[in-house]
Every structure is written in structure tokens, then in C-alpha cells.
Amino acid sequence: MKIALIFFISALIISGTSCKKPSKNPVSPTETVQDASIDIQILSQNLTYPWELLWGPDNFIWMTERGGKISRVNPDNGTANIVFTVPDAKSVGEGGLLGMVLHPTFTLNPHVFVAYNYDKAGTYTEKIVRYTYNGTTLVNPQIILDNIPASSIHNGCRLLISTDLKLFISTGDASNQASAQNINSLSGKILRLNLDGSIPSDNPLNSNPLWTFGHRNPQGLVFVKENLFSSEHGPNMDDEINLILKNRNFGWPTVNGFCNESGEQSFCNSNNVAVPLKSWAPTLAVSGMDFYNNDAIPQWKNSLILATLKDQTLYQLKLSSGTDKIEETKEIFRANYGRLRDVCVAPDGRVFVATSNGSNDKIIVLKKK
Q1: pTM for this structure?
Q2: Residue-wise pLDDT tens digits, 116-144
Q3: Are 163 and 122 in contact, with CB atoms under 8 Å apart?
Q4: Counting Cβ atoms within 10 Å, is residue 215 exposed (0-12), middle (13-18) or buried (19+)?
Q5: What DSSP line would sit under 151-191, residue for residue?
Q6: CA angle at 261 for the pair 258 and 267, rounded to the nearest 5°
Q7: How far, in Å, CA of 213 to CA of 153, rounded?
Q8: Of 32, 52, 108, 338, which shows the fewest CB atoms inside 10 Å?
Q9: Are 84 and 138 within 8 A, CB to CB?
Q10: Residue 71 near residue 52, CB atoms below 8 Å
Q11: Which DSSP symbol is given to 11?
């Protein structure tokens, strides 16, 4: 069922520096949303912990659900067709089937990369696997990276492919805080690999997939031009938006947010710590995000669109002209749909948002009225 709600958006500015058939039943009372007349509809429902939304070259939304399902969702009527169920994906707590990315030249190279947790001889573990889409289902699994520590919390794990065909992987500390500072651990990192799983020769450390370290639980990754941004959960304060810079230490567990607490400054100075572009306290539980630069909703151009879990709010983070700073933060909508996991921006400017409530989860679509 798709539920339409048309509302006029009021400006609501808070401080701070990449799918439609209406239902007869209203979703909720009129919502306060910023700066435009927007149509909000529920595209799909009866989902269970959707985690990744991607716009595919076939003009369908590709979606993962934590229990192991990979589906293609029709962006116009919400029909979800299961492409594949990962047989050994195991959902424990926050774990299970997580991030996914498609090869940039999917027609020629129909590769689907997924990140998921599984039981490896009794040890909960995370791995990155590349499948091939044969037009119907996924075949020919190839392990790209294995033995990433996993836990019931703090697994990351978002995947992204750069224009120079490098695979970026965000990993959480998997309940072991000290691992984030251990350059030989795969936990608490942004990792960078070639698409065949080999290690690029220009990585910071020889024969090491590490790109950056000192991360707690980065759950969003997006490129804006050549700039890579991540969203990261803090413990109970200092959720972060970070500009990911090669070979930088992002401080966890010694540093939360900015280098402004007792004991943090000396560590920051001696460990080349990169501070966030923005942090929130108390935490919002920031999650997936995408970049909006479409004329369909001009006031959202050059912005990150960010989903939050605990805060249950969709945010616009307006970027500077150089796309390396956050100039303004605005709420788009708040609280009517529960926890929000991921965002996908379609080429026509529609914005799709996945909820993460575990019971009758939904994909919501926003578009210009």
C-alpha cells in the first residue's frame, strides 16, 4: 500500500553548522518540513530491517534486509522482488546483511558487492562477497575480504566504489574499542581495496587495506565529487560527520568529536587526528546518507541528506561551494516514521528513505509536489 501525504513545508532551521499510488488512509497529521511543497508517500511496507537502498542502472532500487534478502524494488509502485537470499548471513543484534554496492559499469560488469555477518566456525565474523547478477539472481560468489571482526553491535558496514574503481568499506569497532587504533586490525576503519580484493599500491601502508582508522561505528559513506564523507555513531555524545582523509586517525576511543576535552588535545596533536565537520550531542544515531544535487528540489541542491535512527529525523546538510564544509543543517521531517536507516537519491530527484523499526518497515519517497 502506498500512502500519499501532501503538505506545505515550513522553514525549520536547527542550530549547527542518491519511488506511488496513494492510499485512502492518511499517514499522519500534517508534517513540518522545510522550504517547499513536497509529496511524501509510503512506497513499500511489510519489510524487515532494510539496511541498504541503491539506485540501480536498471532504474530499480536495490535493497538489502538484515535477515539476508536482496531485492529489486520498483520505484513507481513499490513492488519488491527478491533477487537472492544470502544463505550464510546471520542476523545477531545489529548484525546481518548490511551494505551493498553495484559495479559502476554494471551492464558490462554485473557485479554486486555485499557485506554481511556470518558464523565462521563458531565465531561471529564479517566478510565482503562479490556476486554476479545473471539477470534473474546472484551467482558465482567470490570472497573479496574475510575475517573482519563482528559483534551484535558496531559492525559498520557501508560499501562504496570510487570513480577510480576502488572499493571503500566502513567497519565498526565490533565491541572492541582498542581495535580502532590498531592498524593491523580490520575493525574501526575505512578500508580501501581493488575490486578483486587485492590491496592498492598507493594505500597508506604496504599490503594493508587501511585507509583511515580510529572509527567507532561509521554507517554512512558517500562521495561528493572527490570528497568522501562518513557518518559515525558516537557513544552517547558526538555523533559525527567526517571528511575522510587518507591515512588520518579519527580518534576513537580516546577522542569523541572535537579535540576539546581534557586529555584529548595532546592525543590529537601527537596522532594526526582529524576532527569532524559536525558533531551532535546528545547523539542522533546517524546512519545512511546520499548526496542531493538535483534541480527538482533546488533548495536541497549541494546537500547531504542524512537518516537518523534514535532521532527519527531526516536532515539536510548544506555543503559549501567547495563541498568540503557543512554550512547549514535543516530538518526535513521528524518522528512520523520511526527510525530511519538509509537514503537513496534517484536521478530524477526523488528521495527514498528506509525505516528501521523491525516491524512493518517501509520505504518512503519524497518528491516535489
Answers
A1: 0.91
A2: 999 999 999 999 999 999 999 999 999 99
A3: no
A4: buried
A5: -SS-----EEE-TT-EEEEE---TT-GGGGG-TTSSSSEEE
A6: 75
A7: 18
A8: 108
A9: yes
A10: no
A11: P
Number of Cβ within a 10 Å radius of residue 140:
10
- pLDDT tens figures, 247-279: 999 999 999 999 998 889 999 999 999 999 999
Place of cell 492518511: 26
Q: Which cell numbers in the block locate residue 338?
A: 520511526
CA–CA distance, 210 with 248 (Å, rounded to integer) = 10
Cell of 233: 555513531
Gap between the Cα atoms of 344 and 175, Å rounded: 29
The DSSP H or E segment spanning 15 is: none
> Which CATH number is correct for 4-17+19-368, 2.120.10.30, 2.70.150.10, 1.10.150.120, 3.40.50.300?
2.120.10.30
**With left for phi above 0 and alpha for psi between -120 and 50, is residue 63 left, alpha or beta?**
beta
**Antiparallel, parallel or unpaired: β 61-65 and 69-73:** antiparallel
